[in-house]
Amino acid sequence: MSKFLLPITLFTTLLTAGTAAAQTAETPAYFDTGTILARARFAAVIPENFSSSISVIGGHVSATTTEIPELDLSYFFNPNISVEAIAGSSRHEISARDSLLGPKADVGSVWVLPPTITLQYHQQYGDFIPYAGVGVTVMFFYDSHPNVTGGITKAGYSTTAGPALDAGFDYAITPSWVANFDIKQMFVNTTAHINGAIIAKTALSPTVVAAGIGYKF
Predict the structure, then answer these.
(1) 36 to each of 41, 70, 113, 132, 217, how far by Cα in Å?
(2) Which of 49, 69, 90, 99 stands the most exposed, by the fewest C-beta atoms within 10 Å?
(3) Which of 8-22, 36-50, 89-103 has the lowest mean pLDDT?
(4) What's the domain count of the chain?
(5) Which pLDDT belongs to residue 20?
(6) Average pLDDT over all residues of the chain
């Protein structure tokens, strides 16, 4: 199955499980109009590198997986519809694979800041509240450290933006606290300029898998 469909598949699975576990009695809505939900999560950022190309030296671009803390804030327009914004920053090692420089050539490291906003739909089944969403992510690159010892004197990455899909669930632990699991698939391309002559284009499209806790106000 294509990784592009992972969030949709997850939401379908969660929805099916929630339906099977739903109580026959009507459950009061856990989220109300105007509810603000703040979450702290631990996330794995997994660059997919779906496609890439490197001018002059050939090969493709690879970025490492990394784990980060993540914060997010959601506002509920009603018990089912919310908007979520996430904040987190990750550091990745960048390399050129199968190029004229060899099987793997270290380019250096770079920090990525990808603020993402998603519009989400929540469906409650007792204490189990799965959701799915769609939104947009903007990816900023900063604090780039080229691999000088490997002959890379300069490496810059272009700011980029693209759509994002989201799926996950909240589980009510108390009237105010929830446990959360979330997965996002971002679709972004970027261009890297290496030593002023080499241009690398890659579809990073990271998958972000996160788990944590939240508190509603």
Answers:
(1) 16, 17, 23, 18, 5
(2) 69
(3) 8-22
(4) 1
(5) 47
(6) 84
